[in-house]
Model the fold of this input.
Amino acid sequence: GVVSQATRVSRRYGEGAGTRWALSDVTIGFERGKFTAIMGPSGSGKSTLMHVLAGLDAPTRGSVTLEGSELVGLNDDALTEIRRTHMGFVFQSFNLAPTLDIRENIRLPHSLSRKSAPYDEAWEAYLIETLGLQPYLAQRPSELSGGQQQRVAVARALVNKPAVVFADEPTGNLDLATGREVLQLLSTLSREQNYSVIMVTHDATAASYADRVVFLADGCISKDIPKSTAATIS
Ligand code: ADP
Ligand code: ADP
Done:
């Protein structure tokens, strides 16, 4: 089913003559188990759409839901808690906590969340194994390569078993081969673990790993292209 949904969402920046509509009446839903790439020229509204879906930015008009619950109108504390427990984030710049070791970084979303749910050690072990992070657990982010740091970011994004993972140019700071590995991981994990992965990218090669490619132009959806699973694997 649909995990993340924007309905008739618009986002305006500025007032009067300086008004700009970053998003205009956008309706789009994202399903479980699907890896979607959002593409489009610079300034077309990609970041704004991702921020609105993640509750990081409030739309001027419209509705945004996560697993059927409305996010628009919730206060910052409630949104922060929902992000920590139901969403994962992977950014171009890794955003790891420099003073924490790798294991602490992976556990951070759980340590910070208010909910007292028991930590799933087996799931953590699976992520560490799948992402090849075992040798680095006691090290600091600065001791790792960019590709290794992005793998830590992926583990951290998934540790709370989020409904949706947002990836903002996740390969932007990686070499080609490492970027491919990270994309392959996101794609496999979305399918096997039934996550919805939403990735913003301007890189067509990165987008080729997605099951669906959505194009934005001037704050509107200009194309929405589903792709066959066969095309994703090649
Ligand atoms: P993209 O991610 O596709 O490059 P953005 O979502 O960042 O596009 O921006 C869409 C439009 O909204 C652009 O015209 C941009 O200048 C404008 N915009 C984005 N964020 C802000 C902001 N904080 N203040 C004013 N305008 C903004
Ligand atoms: P990039 O690495 O692609 O430049 P940023 O690191 O600037 O992206 O983050 C993009 C946006 O996401 C920013 O608006 C930032 O406030 C927000 N953000 C960054 N880290 C987190 C996080 N861990 N949880 C929620 N939002 C975050």
User: Anything to note?
Assistant: The longest strand covers residues 2-13.
